[in-house]
Specification:
It is built from 2 helices and 6 strands. It is of the alpha+beta class and about 110 residues long. It has a domain of about 80 residues: hypothetical protein PF0899 fold. The chain has a 3-stranded mixed β-sheet with strand order 2-1-6, covered by helices on one side. Strands 4-3-5 form a 3-stranded antiparallel β-sheet, with no helix packed on it. Helix 1 packs across helix 2.
Amino acid sequence: MHEQSIALNIIEIVEQSVDISLLHSVELIRIRTGLLTNIMPEALHFAFSALTKGSKLENSRIELNTLPLSIHCSVCQKEYTSEEIVFDCPFCHSDLITVNNGDVLSISEIVLKD
């Protein structure tokens, strides 16, 4: 379950990024993720909740935004996106494709309560 280590890294980044006096004000942490990270959203939410229980981040939540794959075909030179993992180009059916952003995992925004 690599989601637990990912949740721990998210918590560490938030704790380093937000002033300690404002940690209890963190309401939402938006995460950008690529399809190839193989993150199970339910497992990540569970791990985050378990790891923040009793901490200043206990009332915060995470929101995952899964990005479509950005793909380049080396044969027909087409660029396209896909919401699914693909193994060939939909235009020329070549398997000489390069996925450009499938392994993205980053915090895009930390939202504080008003």
